[in-house]
Amino acid sequence: MSLAISNGIDQFLADHGSLPLPTDNAPAGRDLDADTGSASGLVAVLSGKEPADSSTKPQNPGGVDYLEGIKPAKQLKPTRAKSAPPWANGLMTEGTPPQYSIVDAWGNLYHLRLDTDGDGWVENPDPLQVADGRTKLKKRVIVWSAGKDGREATWEDNPMSWD
């Protein structure tokens, strides 16, 4: 799913000539980190569901769904562990007005790094690859999640949109 999110952002860039931006903060002349949680507003932009009463100009005025291949999240069975996420593997829609998020197969949000400084490169968040000398990635956007163990620091199980 990290690749589907990345591809959706690439298509948005091709159509609009700019990257979609989270509505909760603006880039400051450097690459921007965001996530697929509802607070960032990025999923609403990419799915063409920006709020109509928004006080800012819509980024996706045509309402194109750049995430059309992402299925609705599945509700998980309740567990005794209170920290277990209730949803997994897809697009979540909750609340009124609707709030949109995307979670991985284990209920974790995806993380994104957007090339908002426009140099065509982003810093590599994977310390294992950085230790091997791959400090930057020639990408406009990268997407990853914390994987099965829910810990971002253990990169062996983290789904990534790059090789």
Strand order of the largest sheet: 1-6-9
- Tell me the number of strands: 9
On the 0-100 scale, what is the average pLDDT?
90
Number of domains: 1
- Total DSSP helices: 3
Secondary-structure element series: HEHEEEEEEHEE
Main β-sheet description = 3 strands, antiparallel
Estimate what percentage of residues fall within beta strands: 15-25%
Looking at the structure, what is the overall shape?
A: globular
Radius of gyration: 16 Å
- Spatial separation of the terminal alpha carbons: 14 Å
Tell me the helix content. Answer: 10-25%
SS-derived structural category: alpha+beta
- Regions with pLDDT < 50 over 5+ consecutive residues? none
Describe the structure in your own words.
With 163 residues, the chain is α+β, with helices and mostly antiparallel strands. It has one domain (1-20, 30-50, 87-163). It has helices spanning 2-16, 42-46, 127-131, and strands spanning 32-35, 74-75, 87-88, 90-94, 99-103, 110-114, 122-123, 136-137, 141-145. The mean pLDDT is 90.
Give a quick rundown of the structure.
The chain is an alpha+beta fold and 163 residues long. It has helices at residues 2-16, 42-46, 127-131; strands at residues 32-35, 74-75, 87-88, 90-94, 99-103, 110-114, 122-123, 136-137, 141-145. The chain has one domain (1-20, 30-50, 87-163).
Key phrases:
about 160 residues; alpha+beta; two-stranded antiparallel sheet
Furnish the topology, listing elements before pairings.
Layout (H helix, E strand, L loop, with lengths): L1 H15 L15 E4 L6 H5 L27 E2 L11 E2 L1 E5 L4 E5 L6 E5 L7 E2 L3 H5 L4 E2 L3 E5 L18
Antiparallel strand pairs: 1-6, 2-3, 4-5, 6-9, 7-8
